[in-house]
């Protein structure tokens, strides 16, 4: 009997219809280590090609189908790897070329999911506005899902994906690879152990989008879509509108309706570690200050070039050594080239990495790390202080989190091994959706134009029609239930 017949979701929309977990029918989609995991790739160029290359080099994975609106871009992604001077990249490029050559191809992921009944799992690496639609459709069919960050376009979609993953029993992974990194996991262990003392403030920042994609600029004048690009299909759930140059293939991150800007792109690699280490709940208050919207506040075309977001969390998880282990935490995010203040206790010559990083501010000292949790190091609590005691205390902290084989580079393989039941999953939707919601509440506050207050259940309590901040309208035929 076809597994799809048991979980034909109405897409876990608000009514959340009953879905029979696949383990009831023989193992929640379990694939024995001796068998190949059969994968479909939705968004097979760009980041999807990177994810697929990490899978294609494995003997226990078979890429059976691709869905992408621009197969020319997909071919370019393969050719770029084959032309690399790096032998490892070349090897992955050859594996990717061979895997893609043997795969069925579709322009519309919905057709792929409907027709390819032999799939075990899918990778979702489309622009942000399509993530939830593809992931919900796949989970409703009982398929394991690896979905790129940001997990969804809206807060409501994050909650739907979390609930759908729990109901279906499939193995899910968000594509924030730093979560699998050794350095990042050590940061979490050290902070949780109380080496810094109570942490009540966190600073995080990124240089994006400067030099990466356009933000803070008016929408370009409409033009015909590039040859071979089915623009109506690319639009997906968005309202009908003309193509504008710069959106495809990468600039969409900065265009309202398609991406969620710098916070959505890089927050998953930076906000991740404070949320994880401090066990932060939903924030009680969020404020985003920013430069002008591209097109102006009444005609938001692209996201502001630079933003500062403040979250106030009413409590943190227990922090070892804290007199008030559950006290309030404030976290601040900077992007667009803005940087946090240099800590007063920093030694002469210290500068924050302009590319991105995080600073945990504890009573006993500070911990600084770069993007993805890399290169963690200490700063003293007072200027002229010594970090040797912090370093000794950190060295004595035992390893409490499992390490992922392959470090950050093993994030996709970890998903495969979790499907096979041989390794715990690194960043499932249960956690990834919570992290994503915190990030997207920063976007909601940006859209509100004022600080928002959030109750423990997740409702925004100080903005009329607050549901509009957390959700969006879907074009006919593109809702979460079709």
From TrEMBL:
Residues 39-175 form the Gfo/Idh/MocA-like oxidoreductase N-terminal domain. It comes from Rubrivirga litoralis. Residues 216-274 form the Gfo/Idh/MocA-like oxidoreductase bacterial type C-terminal domain. It holds the Pfam family GFO_IDH_MocA_C2. This is Gfo/Idh/MocA family oxidoreductase.
């Amino acid at each position: 009997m076809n597994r799809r017949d048991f979980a034909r979701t109405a897409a876990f929309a608000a009514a959340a219809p009953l879905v029979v977990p696949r383990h009831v029918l023989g193992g929640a989609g379990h694939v024995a280590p001796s068998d190949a995991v059969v994968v479909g790739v939705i968004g097979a160029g760009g980041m999807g090609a990177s994810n697929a290359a990490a899978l294609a080099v494995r003997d226990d994975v078979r890429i059976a189908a691709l869905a992408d609106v621009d197969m020319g871009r997909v071919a370019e992604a393969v050719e770029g790897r084959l032309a690399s001077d790096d032998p490892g990249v070349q090897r992955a490029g050859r594996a990717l070329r061979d895997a893609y050559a043997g795969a069925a191809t579709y322009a519309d992921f919905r057709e792929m999911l409907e027709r390819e009944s032999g799939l075990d799992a899918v990778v979702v690496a489309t622009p942000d506005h399509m993530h939830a639609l593809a992931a919900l459709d796949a989970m409703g069919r009982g398929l394991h899902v690896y979905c790129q960050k940001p997990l969804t376009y809206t807060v409501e979609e994050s909650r739907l994906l979390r609930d759908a993953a729990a109901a279906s029993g499939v193995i899910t992974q968000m594509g924030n690879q730093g979560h699998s990194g050794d350095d990042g996991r050590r940061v979490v262990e050290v902070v949780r152990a109380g080496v810094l003392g109570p942490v009540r403030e966190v600073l995080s920042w990124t240089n994006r989008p400067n030099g990466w994609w356009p933000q803070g600029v008016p929408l370009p004048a409409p033009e015909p879509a590039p040859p071979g690009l089915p623009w109506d299909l690319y639009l997906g759930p968005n309202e009908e509108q003309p193509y504008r140059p710069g959106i495809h293939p990468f600039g969409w991150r900065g265009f309202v309706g398609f991406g969620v800007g710098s916070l959505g792109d890089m927050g998953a690699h930076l906000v991740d570690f404070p949320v994880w280490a401090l066990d932060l709940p939903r924030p009680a208050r969020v404020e985003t200050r920013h430069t002008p919207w591209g097109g102006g506040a009444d005609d938001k075309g692209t996201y502001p070039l630079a933003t500062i977001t403040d979250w106030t969390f009413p409590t943190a998880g227990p922090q070892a050594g804290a007199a008030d282990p559950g006290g309030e935490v404030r976290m601040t995010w900077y992007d667009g080239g803005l940087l946090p203040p240099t800590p007063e206790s920093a030694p002469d010559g210290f500068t924050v990495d302009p590319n991105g990083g995080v600073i945990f501010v504890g009573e006993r000292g500070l911990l600084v790390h770069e993007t993805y949790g890399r290169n963690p190091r200490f700063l003293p609590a007072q200027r002229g202080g010594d970090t040797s005691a912090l370093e000794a205390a950190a060295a004595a902290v035992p390893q409490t989190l499992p390490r992922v084989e392959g470090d950050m580079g093993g994030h996709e393989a970890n998903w495969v091994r979790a499907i096979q039941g041989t390794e715990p999953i690194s960043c499932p939707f249960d956690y990834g959706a919570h992290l994503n919601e915190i990030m997207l509440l920063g976007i909601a506050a940006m859209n509100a134009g004022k600080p928002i207050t959030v109750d423990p259940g997740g409702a925004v309590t100080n903005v009329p029609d607050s549901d509009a901040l957390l959700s969006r309208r879907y074009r006919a035929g593109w809702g979460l239930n079709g």
